[in-house]
Amino acid sequence: MKIASYNVNSIKSRLGLVVQWLQRRSCDIDVLCLQEIKTVDEAFPYKDFESLGYVCAVSGQKAYNGVAVCSKVRPEHVVREFDVAELDEQKRLIAVTIGGIDIYSVYAPHGDLRGMDKYYYKQRWYEAFKAYLSRQPEQRGIVLAGDFNVALTDMDVYDPVLLKDTIGTMDEERLALMDIVNMGFTDTFRHIHKEERQFSWWDYSGGAVWKDEGMRIDYIFCKGNLSEKIKEAEIDLWPRRRRTPTPSDHTPVIAEFVI
Q1: Are 256 and 5 in contact (CB under 8 A)?
Q2: Which of 9, 127, 144, 145 could lock onto 221 through a cystine, CB 3.0 to 4.6 A?
Q3: What is the CATH number of domain 2-257?
Q4: Sheet-wide strand order for 2-7
Q5: Which uninterrupted H or E stretch holds 49?
Q6: How far lies 211's CA from each of 7, 47, 159, 175, 216, in Å?
Q7: Which of 180, 167, 164, 165 is nearest to 217 (CA)?
């Protein structure tokens, strides 16, 4: 099973690119988790994905946020509401069950400078997500795939000195994400590429992608016996290095499991 995570920064703007990317890979992705789709459920391009063999579960929001999971098999179960105010007030989370594995598409808040409202919201959101995950059965196989808006270590940014204590590298942000990882999750990319510095996001300005001045803030984490089944992990730069169609500022991250 190949699972991919891709913050598309508007599915309407990026549909052509996503379709090209999937076709270029011969649609080898079994489960595609999308973030920041920026559209309501009924406006999602279901038919375009269906034509490629995918069925999509969507939790959308007009103009902002929004997540989806597109898979080659119909999910056994879909969760769009989590009965937690911090997790439900914005559409940042959807969970599907496929083959007994709970797969979450996650779009964590970007945050802001210390003391700002969005800074505190990011902290509250992470606390709520951790609490929610702690209530899930220990024996469940879980995959968290998405844009977490945190560079977990200095290896995950192009310049640790320049970016020290900025949004996405603050100690408290890293601790919030590490608290979730320490619940038994494995970072699939780092599991395979222990010393490799690769990124999943680059600013649009200054030709950052061509200078590789980026951050790794998109992850696929897995829990349970899935950690023993990781076969490969990669960051596919092809979609980000397109000039046309205009790319997202993120690129897909992929993990392959022997199920």
Answers
A1: no
A2: 144
A3: 3.60.10.10
A4: 55-59, 67-71, 31-35, 2-7, 253-257, 230-235
A5: helix 46-50
A6: 21, 37, 12, 29, 15
A7: 167
Burial class (CB in 10 A: 0-12, 13-18, 19+), 250: buried
- Neighbour-count burial for 202-238, b at 16+ CB within 10 Å, e otherwise: beeeeebbeeebbbbbbbbbbbbebbeebeebbbbbe
Q: Read off the tokens for 150.
A: 């945190």
Distance (Å, whole) CA 36 – CA 229: 29
| Nearest-10 Cα torsion for 156, 159, 163, 168 | -10
Kindly state the tokens that stand for 182. 């320490």
Q: Rounded distance, CA 48 to CA 113, Å?
A: 39
Q: Cα–Cα distance between 225 and 223 in angstroms, integer?
A: 7
Residue 247 CA to residue 58 CA, distance in Å, equals 21
Please give the span between the terminal C-alpha atoms of the chain, in angstroms, as a whole number.
6
| Domain regions of the chain by residue span | 2-257
